[in-house]
Amino acid sequence: MENTTETMNEADASSCRLVEPGENSAGSESHEIIIVGTAHVSEKSVQEVISKIEETCPDIVAVELCPARYRALIGQEVEKEIKISELLSGGKLFFFLVQLFLAYIQRKIGEELGVKPGSEMLAAIDAAKKAGARVALVDRDIGITIQRFWSAMGFFDKIRLVGSLIPAALGWGDEEEIDIDSITQADIVSQMISEFRKISPGAANVLVDERDAYLARNLHLLSKQGRVLAVVGAGHREGILKHLEHPENIPALEGLNEKPGKKITFVKIFGVVVSLLILVTIGLVLITAKSSEIILQACVIWFVVTGGLSALGVVLARGHPLSALTALMVAWMTTLNPFVAAGWFAGMVEAWKLKPTVSDLKKLAAADNFSQMMQNRLFKVILVAALSNVGAMLGMFVGVYLIWHWLGLNLSADMIWVMVKNGYSSVLNYF
User: Fold this and answer.
1) DSSP three-state, residue 263
2) Could you give the 3-state DSSP secondary structure of residue 138?
3) Pairing between strand 228-233 and 60-63?
């Protein structure tokens, strides 16, 4: 919890008496833990939280927030230039997009109900100040949760998740009015979690089960310092209570805080297959070419097709001419290397020209339509990178097809199977 301590001390400047779970608790007797389950966009939950704190007068009010989310709610983010190199590399772009997508849907629901997401947490902190109680931020860091969430999902899980979120984000589907206050009821919560587990059991484990354990562990540690009232989403209440019945069996925080390790995924396998296809194409050119002129012509085809379509992606994203030129010049090389992407370079150039900041991130989360998104500098960088990559990928397949056709080879399933099974020599014999 070392990193959490430092962040909490920063938050003390806002006059909130924050306490870290576990401090001064060795050998202490546990006190009562009261758990209030809320709906994050419900005005009824806000009033219930305030009333419960005034009624019970706890020593500590624990809220389902991490330091990063707390700072975001109170508007304490530091205005700085976003490190685009980190955002565009290592798959972090996907973490950001999923987090942004979920936040957007929650914000739209909150707007319809007239309640800002997280209002009950801020109300709990304010009520704790008035009651003279200390405040504890007991949730796991949002960055770790999103990383573990994305890593736990398989390729088709991600497709199902996005497919289920898009209608909600665009306002499609069932128009039946939902009573948001009923979400705090145990049977409704269980049903919603059960539906989420059908989409992705691994992701549900990260977002629900792991955080149940994390929250329960912190609440148990806090209970050694005094009487605790915990304000958590209704979906966590039942799981936390089960853990608190046998606190000795709650997993250690260290294990729940580990960042996911690298693993073999469908996307990586697909990348390997694509790389092999390119290597086979290079081999066929070298084997069948009767002169250096033929090799040069194959290189020209590869450069023009991959670079041209990658640059076209930048143009469609309305990117800067230098970004399009960068995509044109590097796509031939990045399509040969599975560890780099044309969009990374094009996006970096676009970011150099536009210099997006944290304020662009806030504005992007508040955008209501695609037109507003296109006016956002950060979104423009992301779109340039994404469409440049799509163009380069399309160009790679078109380039392979054109080169094979130019060499007089007919790309077919039978030929590919022979090639994989028996190697280059059998391909030549096949023709």
Assistant:
1) coil
2) coil
3) parallel
